[in-house]
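for the writeup, i need someone to sanity check this before i put it in the appendix. the sequnce is what the collaborator sent (i think, or maybe the updated version? ugh). structure was predicted straight from it, no edits. if anything looks off just tell me and ill rerun, i have time this weekend
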Amino acid sequence: MGAALPIPAWFDAAKADKIWQVDYETRAQQAHDWAKQHNLKPAASDQLKVNLTIVDGQNTFCVPSGELFVGGRSGNGAVDDNVRLSEFIYRNLSNISTIAATMDTHKSFQIFHAEFLINDQGQNPAPFTLISTEDVKNGVWDVNPAVAWTVASGNLNYLQQHLRHYVEMLEAAGKYQLCIWPYHAMLGGVGHALAATLEEALHFHTHARGSQWRAEIKGGHPLTENYSVMAPEVMTTWDPNNPNGTQMNVQRNVRFLEALASFDVVIIAGQAKSHCVAWTIADLLDWMKAKDPKLVEKVYLLEDCSSPVVTPVIDFTDAADDAFQRFADEGMHVVQSTVPMDQWPDLVF
């Protein structure tokens, strides 16, 4: 295992709460110089292949001006997480072989955005409104006719039936109720971009180790939420001839699941601990247990690099902590980024 490296002198933790432009050319040259100075080898030569997966490290979640800033109970959660995560990357440049970053990616007309639903007064639901099965059955919320042309070629009845099917499937699976989220991670917008502090660390790692970071896009289908990068919340749609519905044009991300399984070590961090992080880990856990239960033991969760959603309506901290406890009980390792990797349990380089 490579020794822990110093944090580059130019790293500025005070900028983690801001949106700014990475100086790509300068950082690339500095990465090449850093690799020579610290005798860093190309990642392709690593005997132990280590992947770091960062869930939704985007402006929309990670800077206070973001539409869905994940403040946690401290109020500064994602900012502090990103400082620790960036420092973890710099210290462990020689140990991390590849980095993957999931990218929540949305447009306006999606089932979890206000414009999709309307009440009998012509009003859209407020952000953070929870939509229950009873709400849909009783007509408290219906599909907004204005979205039908774009989303379903004008078939409003189909969308209304899908909405009912959708909330019923969430309930049957014991998942979170449909939540109306503020418009966030909008494709092409500032919020969609990686937080600059993280992007800078990924760019530096790429050039220091000769290992291009990969983006995993999720969340683009208009008729389902997609907390997990591994699979959407609901993969079926209403079918009058099948009470379980019919498969939509969405599927499990088996390609990424297989890719992670091929690594010797998988490290996971990101936002939000209670939602996209927890759901991604849960899907990975279920898939690994089915494929080979021993795979679970290679997963390490950076607990101090993720924060839960805390809103004026609901605090998901306890749910997030319960999820991480379950992951640990199942054999995954919950660790701190500030602890040297050679002190992590069951990790031998």
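The longest helix spans residues 273-291. The chain has a mean pLDDT of 96.
thx in advance!!
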